[in-house]
Every structure is written in C-alpha cells, then in structure tokens.
Amino acid sequence: MAGRVMNRDRAYFVLMGGCIVAVILAWTVVRLYSVTAAIIISVCVGLIPPIAAMVANAGDEGSRRR
Hints:
mainly alpha
C-alpha cells in the first residue's frame, strides 16, 4: 500500500515538473520562433495540473493520508 502512495506522489511530481519545464521552454525558447506556438503550449500545459491532482488522489480510500 505504501508503494502505491509513493508511485502516485512520484507521478504527481513528474507531471508538475514537466508542466513547469514546458512553460519555461515555451517562453524562453519557443517564443523566439513563434509566439503562437508558445501560447498553444501554455494553454495545453494548463490542463496538466488538474490531471496531476486526479492522479495524486486516485486509489482506494484506505490508502489516502489523513
């Protein structure tokens, strides 16, 4: 059971870390070539935090921390 919680935590941090990296890359590198592409990347990245929250909260009730 503790392994599942660790895997969910790891998945959450990977998703959120990828989110941060994508936003930074979009506005430091991609915007030099296309502002439209940077905006599209930012909008798509905006969908990641709710998905990460669902992943972090997935599982049975007994495995949740209190």
